[in-house]
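name: query_chain
kind: protein
chains: 1
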Amino acid sequence: MSEYKMPRGIVISGTGLWTPPDTISNEELVTALNTFADKFNRENADAIEAGELQAKPHSSAEFIEKASGIKSRYVISKEGILDPERMRPYIPERADDELSLQAEMGLKAAKLALEKANKKPEDIDAVIVGASYLQRAYPAIAIEIQSELGVDGFAFDMEVACSSATFALQRAVDAISSGSAKAVLVINPELASPQVDYTDRDSHFIFGDVAVASVVERKENCNSDTAWEILGTKAKTVFSNNIRSNFTYTARAADVDPFGEGKLFRQNGRKVFKEVCPMAAEHLESQVQELGMAPANIDRWWLHQANINMNNLIAKKLMGDDATIERAPIVLDRFANTACAGSVIAFNLHSDDLPVGSKGVICSFGAGYSIGSLALEKIAV
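structure:
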């Protein structure tokens, strides 16, 4: 367990949220999956009868919403996902001299965050891209965005699954505390849909695509009327196989299909629920106590947005009967699970209404297991 106690005076001065133009409802996903399942079962009837293959089950919009709280999601490419003959997005490959899709997504969110913080690219010293999935190994998406913005400094990518955003924000705090940067742009472009198995009833509905960005800087340089001062950060990782993605370049050396069975996103949902909920609640309770507060002192919890039942349970553990949608807002109903971006989306959409002096916590948790959180206080600048 690691708690970082930095000097006061580091703030989040602006955030930006960009969403793709396409959305997919539960009903649309279910129609595509059920059509695919009927075709698969019909074409493989003999093998299924012989016990060599398992029949593909149907899904329903009611099942999805009850299991997750998700009603719709934003996606980069809608048509291919809903095609029973394809069941995956269609994203054309771009030339090496073209801006990559993930950089394009991140750039759009970054510009919105800079605008909110009243900052220009020349005010930024570092760019960190944190995402659950990265489009390539190198050159870094962060350096590509840095180049497009014209930021003079350094940039790097990092990946801690669904905790990538909070871990990246903590690295920004580290850089500012050490003096290696005065202002850092943290970007989370989550291009998750290509890693989804849209033929799997238990996971085809989970993820959506989105990009968020945050400006982290010293308070004395802040140009916003208000900002969120970072009171403390905390991170914890515990190894678990219950959430896993085995897609890897080493599949070429193993002579296996890189997109074959078990190579895309998969999870043991029941174990994740049972193990992560108490872990996250204990993590958050201990963090605020170490900062001299109690959960009751926290005005808003911007929790990881993976599953409404997990969020409700964690909120109940932290706040008891005082747990409300206002204190722990939900955005996954229309965004779905956006991997590491979810808690920052919640912060972006549900923080401006709070008065100066309010306290809140951004928290994400996911594969690893990993948990990252930042305790904040709204201040006038």
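note: The mean pLDDT is 95.
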